[in-house]
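Propose amino acids for all 550 sites.
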């Protein structure tokens, strides 16, 4: 009874709680013939409850989680000898239910439903691709949709690293049935696919002897996900609609603007003129808009002729703040919701910083925000959409674009160190979000949640007071804090959250870092006699605050 030690003839031992001669309660077992050990709860001599088992002496292969009479069942984490790791639900010693698997050996990740150890049901599978060494933003291929017996099968979306996207039906990892292919340059084909190719009848309508725009270069093509033939679908220069008619857009087929929902706001008789005039406005500014898109897409990336930069939502938020869109009495979170309505963005991706944005999508976003911000001012004038867009260009974009502010992208070395923590900080950010009180009820973070988080992490102190917190947050947002009154109901997107953490690290942790981390005299640091001290301090303080958050 109670606590005891068992020793078997083969050298196996058990030390822990015992009831009626049987292992019962908490205890540790070590096998004498194999490098296997278990520490956790027992019931009637069997592993039962919470416990951890190690399968090798090095401790690189283990399981930690729930047990039911020697069977893995419930929630648990399994780390394999290769370094691959699964975290989620178990049933009968197999991955079963909701869970996430990370294959470190092949740089892949799957989050979704499992059945008997196999991907089955709805999930997201991501293949991470690093095009060049030290790239800040690893490119990724990503499939979101249905799986059957480990294969992409049913309805699903595939986002290619180049920016191309397929949405439609799949069969055994191949595009099969009806689908919609959006190519890298904005061309769209909607129709039938067979065996991962555009259906044969479509090929007869196209002139494939023209120049073809591949989705990626040779190095990219050699690293495509298993079962996905990227080179199988080629892109024609001219696309016809399914009824055989050609697009009449003044922008041509290289950029397809989706103005359907915007034009529905106008009387039917004026829609054609509204469409034509705003396309002319975009055409007049297209060179400048391309330059702006390329500039923001490359922020934080090492420049290389080998690299293809795609804008992410993180870049887009920085562009919006630089151009002072948020000065029109609308927050970045509100803009995300407006764009989600027009573009059918899934609720879980409305505020995702990793969502990629093509040039054509970037242009659509600008038109949609221009209408939302200025349509009341021009509702009695024509062409209204043209006037909204023109005012946005003249007052916001032309004067302020490419003048980067904030703490994330303003200094390359700081960006390099900071981006190492972006995935972990995104997890923390989402953990402290709460469902929005209004549709679509997506997760969002308010100012007060952020302050509570800092208090939980014991970061609110004499260096970082609540007043200092408000001053930092209000630095680039005049509607947060006027020096007297604060608005804790305003929402923060991830960029604002992340840059605020950076500012806290640089402003509030500086003094203690200078003394405790570098251990050099304070006067020497302030006068910067050591040359590179300032850079070291910047990097060290970033690591310090993010380590605190982690």
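Proposal:
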């Amino acid at each position: 009874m109670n606590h005891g030690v068992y020793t078997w003839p083969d050298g196996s031992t058990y030390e822990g709680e015992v009831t009626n001669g049987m292992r019962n309660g908490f205890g540790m077992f070590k096998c004498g013939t194999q490098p296997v050990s278990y520490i956790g709860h027992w019931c009637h001599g069997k592993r039962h409850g919470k416990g951890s088992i190690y399968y090798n002496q090095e401790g690189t292969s283990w399981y930690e989680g729930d047990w039911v009479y020697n069977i893995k069942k419930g929630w648990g984490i399994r780390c394999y000898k290769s370094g691959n790791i699964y975290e989620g639900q178990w049933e009968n010693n197999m991955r079963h239910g909701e869970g996430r698997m990370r294959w470190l050996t092949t740089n892949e990740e799957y989050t979704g439903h499992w059945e008997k150890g196999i991907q089955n049901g709805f999930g997201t599978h991501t293949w991470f691709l690093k095009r060049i060494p030290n790239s800040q933003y690893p490119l990724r291929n990503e499939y979101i949709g249905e799986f059957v017996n480990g294969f992409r099968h049913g309805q699903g979306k595939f986002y290619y690293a180049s920016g191309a996207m397929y949405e439609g039906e799949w069969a055994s990892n191949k595009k099969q049935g009806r689908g919609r292919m959006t190519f890298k340059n904005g061309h769209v084909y909607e129709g039938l696919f067979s065996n991962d190719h555009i259906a044969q009848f479509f090929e007869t309508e196209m002139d494939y002897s023209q120049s073809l725009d591949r989705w990626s270069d040779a190095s990219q093509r050699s690293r495509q996900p298993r079962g996905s033939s990227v080179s199988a679908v080629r892109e024609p220069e001219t696309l016809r609609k399914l009824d055989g008619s050609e697009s009449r857009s003044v922008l041509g087929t290289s950029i397809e603007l989706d103005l359907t929902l915007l034009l529905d706001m106008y009387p039917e008789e004026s829609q054609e003129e509204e469409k034509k005039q705003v396309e002319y406005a975009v055409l007049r500014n297209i060179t400048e808009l391309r330059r702006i898109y390329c500039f923001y897409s490359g922020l934080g990336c090492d420049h290389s002729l080998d690299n293809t930069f795609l804008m992410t939502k993180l870049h887009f938020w920085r562009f919006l703040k630089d151009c002072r869109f948020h000065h029109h009495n609308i927050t970045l979170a509100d803009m995300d919701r407006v764009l989600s309505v027009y573009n059918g963005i899934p609720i879980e991706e409305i505020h995702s910083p990793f969502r990629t944005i093509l040039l054509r999508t970037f242009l659509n976003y600008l038109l949609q925000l221009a209408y939302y911000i200025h349509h009341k001012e021009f509702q009695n004038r024509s062409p209204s959409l043209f006037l909204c867009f023109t005012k946005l260009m003249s007052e916001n974009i032309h004067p302020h674009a490419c003048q980067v502010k904030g703490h994330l992208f303003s200094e390359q070395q700081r960006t390099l160190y900071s981006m190492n923590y972006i995935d972990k900080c995104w997890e923390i950010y989402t953990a402290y979000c709460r469902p929005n009180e209004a549709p679509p009820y997506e997760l969002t973070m308010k100012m007060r949640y952020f302050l509570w988080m800092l208090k939980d992490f014991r970061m609110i102190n004499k260096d970082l007071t609540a007043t200092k917190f408000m001053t930092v947050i209000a630095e680039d947002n005049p509607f947060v804090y006027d020096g007297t009154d604060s608005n804790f109901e305003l929402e923060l997107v991830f960029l604002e959250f992340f840059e605020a953490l950076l500012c806290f690290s640089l402003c509030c942790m500086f003094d203690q870092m200078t003394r405790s981390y570098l251990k050099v005299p304070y006067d020497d640091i302030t006068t910067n006699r050591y040359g590179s001290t300032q850079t070291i301090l910047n990097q060290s303080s970033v690591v310090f605050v993010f380590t605190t958050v982690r």
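The radius of gyration is 28 Å. Residues 201-247, 517-545 have pLDDT under 50 and may be disordered.
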